[in-house]
Amino acid sequence: MKRLILLGLAAVFSTVAAAGVFAQEAAKKAPSYVKDPDAAWVILSKKPVKTGLELLEKGAEGDNAPATKGGKEAWAALGKNNAVPDNPDASPFMYFKITKKAFKKGAAPRVKLTVEYFDEGEAEVGLEYDSSDDAVAKCPIPGAFKDHEEKIILEDSGKWKTFSFEIEDGKFDNGCNGCDFRFNFAGGVTFTIGSVAVEKMK
Q1: Can you point out the beta strands (E) in 52-177?
Q2: Which residues, if any, are the signal sequence (predicted)?
Q3: 101 and 16 in one domain?
């Protein structure tokens, strides 16, 4: 009888453990727009869910904080609270760092970078990234902070949207102040992100 009870308890604990693993895997489900199973992505819920990509939550060029927009948890950078006190109109930034090795040090130069954002206000949001383009010389690290020619255009629709940037020369070697890319926008603009993903292109 004692053996049967112990076996029964073992089965219960096994089921609970399996349920826990399943719950963890479910919690790590990629954003719906991600098609590459090997993508690096982050979901910016109140407690971010990270798979190879992370947001720099606080930094020298603007802090970010949890926010809820359109019923969805996210993180926002408030331009009016940027970290340049002597210039309130200075552009703040949201920095991201790729941690998945398959994308680092030029291993995956051709990528699609998709951002899910809340369309609020009227402004342009730019992307700067760590590239292999030696002609870019904004800082001592060649190729860092390359401007992508495309921009996100905020149209104040009050809806969640996605925008994808295609990159052909990504280096992603932490050249952007220790990170790999950043979004920039004018001071006074509120930019809110729900998720970001980086996927390899063929």
Answers
A1: 53-55, 64-69, 72-78, 93-98, 111-118, 122-129, 146-147, 152-155, 160-167
A2: 1-19
A3: no
